[in-house]
Amino acid sequence: MNKISRRQFLGMTTKAGAATMFAGIFAPSASSMLGLGGVAEAATKKIKPFTFAVLTDAHLYDIADHKFDHILEKAVADVNSIKPRPDFVLYAGDLGQSGKKAELVKGKKILDKLKMPYKIIPGEHDYYLDMGKAWRKLFGDEHWSFNHNGVHFIGMNSILVPDFWTLKKLTPKERMHMMEELECHNCGAWGVGEKQLNWLARDVRRVSPDTPVVIMTHSPLWDYYPRWNFQTYDAPEIREILRKFDKVISIHGHVHQVVYNEIDNMRSCGLLSTSWPWPYPPVELEYPHIIQRRADPGDFEDGLGGHDIALNADFDAIVHWREFSDLLPDNIKKGLKV
Amino acid sequence: MRKVRKTSFTAVASVIVVSGALIITSMAQAKPPRSETQVAQERAALMTAVAKGDDLWHSAKLGNNGLACANCHPDGSASNVHTWPKFQTNLGKVGTLREMINWCIAVPMQGRILESDSEEMIAMEAYATFTHRGVAIAPAKDEQHGAVPVKSGPGYPRH
Ligand SMILES: [Fe+2]
Ligand SMILES: [Fe+2]
User: What is the C-alpha to C-alpha distance for residues B96 and A35, in angstroms, rounded to an integer?
Assistant: First the structure.
């Protein structure tokens, strides 16, 4: 076993220590942690196996018959065809492109074709025209949690930035336009903010540590490439609150790509969009073998798709990136065990 | 003859890039000599083109379906400016970066292509190339390349 995991399991990890362990590298399976002289306990709670599906980042435009409409429709039909049928679907944000009500209404209409219930969180593209008003009216709370078959599911709004518009006297449209750019020069880093952190702490206070946890946010809960908000500034606080759990699976949209990372007890999976694939940013990855191949710009479905995640009784999750075309490396074609 | 060649080689080699800032070192061998003011003006003209290209790169106005170049190519990423000209499957021939930019405008963005030598096209090329400053030229390299890492701001001195 490597140094990092031993230190963690001897309980010496401080908050500051955890922050320096950027993208921890201990072995991914729960069983491999059992070799540490009984220091770590495997999850004792059994769950009732089930599958759920995840879609994200449709970026629908207020333009009739747009190509992204059809790709989302295709992804919805694909999810409906999964057997056994997923118990529910999670949607990780950026349903619209410019925060217009018409985009969100169109998106809801397509998502309502899902044959199972779905839960959704906002992305920056859904939000900054009216600060989430239309989104909340259509979809309800921006953060939520529920239990399913013994697993605790959490969804949070991770795209909140400090006010950069009032002083500059920006119109809502100008504000939205700035946020629409991935490289926004003056928008600042996103996070969930103090209110949601407090909510999260309260939410998990009475959830026992052996409960499997799945958390969904729009942006990654690790510092991937802050420049493009491939980050959540208060992710260290989120990870700290969730540190008591044996295993936390984090799923996130926004990156429009297959990407994987581990920090402490959290395994993070980046999701495919149904709009366009983002290029990989110029940073080194801890798991470079879990990325998709380069997309053909002439094939509008390349690098896009949905996901299903199958959980077994021991909370081993098999994550399937259901890419429409053939860009997955062989090692994750049949799914990735996390 | 030999002397001339050596001179031009030195001039090329002296254009270097240091930590994100374009620094053009001694142009003493260029003929006729250019004053510092002149050099500064020329550099400013380039940066004006880069800024104009940046705006166009992020503008949905080039297309007709809401998309901008930056939808798929944030910070100029994956434009792979250092690999052109090369055989590009979508072009069906050995093509240039400008032809590829026009292909992207015409196909994924459903817009109207630009004149190859237009101010707009040159500005777009200037922006994309500037985001790859310091990246070694690699003709036909067949792998996606990120642009120069950017911490914050536009990624170049912009006023
Ligand atoms: Fe997105
Ligand atoms: Fe996003």
Answer: 57
> Which residue range(s) make up the domain with A105?
40-337
Nearest by CB: A97 against B66, B104, B146: B66
Per the structure block, which two tokens stand in for B100? 């590829």
Find the domain containing B32 and state its range: 2-130
**Is there a contact between B58 and A279 if contact means CB atoms under 8 Å apart?**
no
Using the Cβ of B144 and the Cβ atoms of chain A, whether some distance falls under 8 Å is answered with: yes
Inter-chain touch A296–B73, beta carbons under 8 Å: no
Q: Tell me the pTM.
A: 0.85
d(CA A185, nearest CA chain B) in Å:
5
Q: Are A222 and A261 in contact (CB under 8 A)?
A: yes
Q: Which residues of A touch B70 (CB under 8 A)?
A: 181-183
Q: What is the pLDDT of residues B28-46, one digit of tens each?
A: 555 678 899 999 999 999 9
Tell me the CATH number at B103.
1.10.760.10
What ipTM did this prediction achieve? 0.83
Q: Which of A40, A38, A15 has its CA nearest to residue A26? A: A40
Residue B140 lies in a domain: no
Identity of the residue numbered A17: G
* Residue owning tokens 């949209």: A253
